[in-house]
Amino acid sequence: QQGELNSFLWTIRRDPPAYLFGTIHVPYTRVWDFIPDNSKAAFHASSSVYFELDLTDPYTISGLASCQRGKGLYADYLFNAIAGNWERKRPVWVMLMVNSLTETDIRSRGVPVLDLYLAQEAERMKKTTGAVERVEEQCHPLNGLNFSQV
Predict the structure, then answer these.
(1) Alpha-carbon dihedral sign for residues 28, 33, 37, 38
(2) Rounded CA separation 8/16 (Å)
(3) What pLDDT is stored for residue 18 in this prediction?
(4) Which residues contact 110 (CB under 8 A, 6 or more apart)?
């Protein structure tokens, strides 16, 4: 039931309203039906939307790709992008990439993650968009972990 779902939506200011919405980095088709109506209504009523990263910015995408050093969509390329050269990758990246080697995740390649889907919708609706982080702020901490921290 919609009324029983956790909205992951927090009101942080009332006039004008401002909200904080917790997202997850999975294909939006896996979670969209479970996002409560109040969260969708707040998104549609908003004039500005800010995301963790600007996933519509080519610089952000190239930065993420070089951060993980993964490219490719076809089976061999996909496997090599995820698991190839694993000896030289930081253990935390190997863990994250191996966890994404499930049939469901492989089948959903190409479907935008929830953040990207919302960013694309925001642009389509002519909303002001922005980001609160830069790609370097995410890459450096993960790449900087030592073995005991991993």
Answers:
(1) negative
(2) 19
(3) 87
(4) 73
Per residue in 130-143, is it b (16+ CB within 10 Å) or e — as a string? ebeeebeebbeeee
- Give the residues across from 93 on adjacent strands: none
Residue 133 has pLDDT above 70, yes or no: yes
pLDDT digits (tens, 9 = 90+) for 40-70: 999 999 999 998 888 888 888 888 777 765 3
Note whether 108 and 29 are within 8 A (CB). yes
Phi-psi domain of 63 (left: phi exceeds 0; alpha: psi -120 through 50; beta: other): alpha
Contact 42, 127 (CB under 8 A): no
List the structure tokens of 139.
Answer: 């890459």
* Strand ranges in 52-141 using DSSP code E only, listed in sequence order: 128-131
Nearest to 114, CA basis, from 60, 39, 59, 62? 39
The sign of the CA dihedral 113, 115, 116, 121 is: positive
Rounded distance, CA 63 to CA 141, Å? 14
